[in-house]
Write a structure and sequence with these properties.
21 helices
Length: 557
């Protein structure tokens, strides 16, 4: 039986894999337990890891460090790949506000830590470690340790101890802050989801449909292509009803308009009013009515699955000229885009095609429309992106007055590269499409490995440190965690009318806390928390590292 005992308390690869798998499996099982309808979910892996390490189930420190960093990279990279296509548009809509609020959380945390130092007399050097643990920011800890070593030529173990003691309850405190916001504002997930869906319908959709009656005499006898140049706005004319002959036909660039013709237009909401005013008047007739008027034409959504078309411009396919059908919309990551000729296509796009059935079937074969092809994993952009992300995260950035260079780290670099690759990869013929299930699997494996490694690394000496006075550090860390999040979260909810899903992502991102994001994603049926997280993460990471070094300079000044 010695071989069996060695699997649990020995060394080697088998021991490491068994301990990691056991910690993760037990943590996931405990995460299914709910009290008053609330569970900490996957965060339980952290506490199982602490317990396992405390009772002697340790893992080699170097191996543990690798597992932690690699798991974190997988997690943040999969998040970046998911939110990348909609990141920049979301940043324009609310990114400035989100980053201002995240900056407020960072600065309030620093102020809270400093006030605790002043009130209690606790060493500011120790409080910097507690602060890094309370906001679960390992790069901040590293920056503080490096700044201390450069200034004194020695190391202070209290920095790392403060971090280790405050970290576990920091994770819990961040998630508890999310829960507290939900209870305090009496938030109902169903209502929040409905509100988000309503706002998406009203303002976030990129296209709107309308029937317009041609009334402008200056347009009589002109082609649709000529009118498009005159209007100066992007729009697509799908079908036209010639009033004089009561005939419906597919609209092409060379279709000539006459007085009182009805045209079915697809345009951006902000452009539609100007287009209607220029062409004529709006006529109350929806898309279904057009289909009833002439059963010859049908509308179908086709999936783009041919890698050769990835990154090509829609106009270069000449679908309308060659097949007599019209592509009116392109749906990407749940958002409808206007099918303009200069729109760059990506694998996984769903295009709405209008025309007769035979021609649409021909177009379907050209675009692919094969779910089997989409299920094939595209590993090149993942590992290529991780390579570039690690390089970016390792680049030192120097700033005047700061003794140590600032780095994005092994989380910040891959996250930024994932966003850029998923957004701009198709432009360079890089297939970046990953199925939702594959992305989720990669993400969950990554966060599970990360939490298990953190727990196993923090468990040894954890109880002893708390028993010898470290329990006050736990309290200080909890205050540093919760107070800024609750204050800024309240401002975000009451002043900026922020939906709860965005608040969840803001809280997780401003603390650079993957477990909180995993918890948020588990309780939301959309990617809003991930988008908010990715929006504030880069600036927050920079500020966490910067403020840790500035505080250390003050402490040693």
């Amino acid at each position: 039986m010695e071989w069996f005992c060695n699997l649990f308390i020995g060394e080697g690869i088998s021991h490491t894999i068994l301990i990691l798998a056991l910690v993760i499996a037990m943590g996931i099982l405990l995460g299914r337990i709910k009290i008053a309808g609330i569970s900490l979910g996957i965060t339980w892996i952290l506490f199982v890891g602490i317990f396992a390490s405390h009772i002697g189930m340790t893992v080699d420190a170097h191996t543990l460090h690798f597992v932690k960093e690699f798991g974190l990279i997988l997690f943040v990279y999969s998040v970046g790949m998911q939110v990348g296509p909609g990141f920049f548009s979301s940043f324009k809509k609310g990114g400035v506000t989100l980053n201002l609020l995240a900056t407020g959380i960072v600065l309030l945390g620093v102020l809270t830590a400093y006030l605790i130092h002043v009130i209690t007399g606790e060493s500011l050097v120790t409080m910097i470690g507690v602060l890094s643990g309370a906001v679960t920011n390992t790069p901040g800890l590293g920056a503080a340790q490096q700044a201390y070593a450069d200034a004194t030529g020695t190391s202070d173990p209290n920095i790392a101890l403060g971090y280790a003691v405050a970290y576990p309850l920091g994770v819990v405190g961040i998630i508890m802050s999310i829960i507290m916001m939900r209870v305090f504002f009496n938030i109902k997930f169903d209502k929040e989801t409905d509100d988000v869906a309503k706002k998406n319908k009203e303002s976030e959709d990129n296209v709107e449909l309308a029937t317009i009656v041609v009334k402008n005499p200056a347009l009589f006898g002109k082609t649709i292509d000529g009118i498009s140049k005159l209007v100066g706005r992007k729009f697509i004319v799908s079908r036209i009803c010639h009033t004089a002959v009561h005939q419906i036909e597919m609209a092409g660039n060379n279709t000539v308009l006459a007085e009182d013709d009805k045209i079915f237009v697809v345009a951006a909401p902000e452009d539609l009013e100007a287009i209607i005013a220029f062409i004529g008047v709006k006529f109350d007739m929806d898309q279904h009515k057009w289909e009833e008027l002439n059963g010859k034409y049908i509308s179908r959504r086709i999936m783009l699955t041919k890698p050769a078309l990835n990154g090509k411009r829609l106009g270069s396919l000449e679908i309308r000229q060659n097949y007599g059908v019209t592509i009116t919309r392109v749906n990407r990551a749940g958002v409808d885009l206007i099918a303009t000729p200069d729109l760059m296509l990506q694998m996984g796009d769903r295009v709405t095609v209008v025309g007769d059935e035979v021609r649409i079937n021909q177009v379907s074969s050209i675009l692919g429309n094969s779910m089997k092809r989409l299920r094939e994993p595209n590993l090149i952009p993942i590992f290529f992106g991780i390579v570039v992300g690690v390089i970016l995260g390792s680049i030192p950035f120097t700033f005047p007055g700061i003794p140590q260079p600032v780095k994005l780290g092994l989380a910040g670099g891959p996250l930024i590269i994932a966003i850029l690759v998923s957004k701009f990869g198709p432009k360079y013929k890089l297939v970046t499409y990953t199925t939702f299930s594959a992305n989720m699997m990669l993400r969950e494996i990554g966060i599970s490995l990360f939490l298990a490694a953190v727990g196993l690394g923090a468990g040894e000496g954890f109880v002893e440190t708390i028993a010898n006075g470290g329990y006050m550090w736990v309290l200080y860390g909890f205050i540093i965690t919760v107070l800024p999040l609750f204050i800024i979260g309240t401002i975000g909810r009451l002043v900026y009318k922020m939906n709860y899903f965005t608040l969840m992502g803001l809280i997780a991102g401003s603390t650079t806390d993957p477990p909180a994001l995993a918890y948020s994603n588990a309780y939301s049926e959309n990617n809003i928390p991930s988008v908010a997280y990715a929006t504030v993460y880069p600036l927050t990471m920079f500020l966490r590292v910067l403020t840790a070094q500035v505080m250390m300079l003050i402490a040693l000044g």
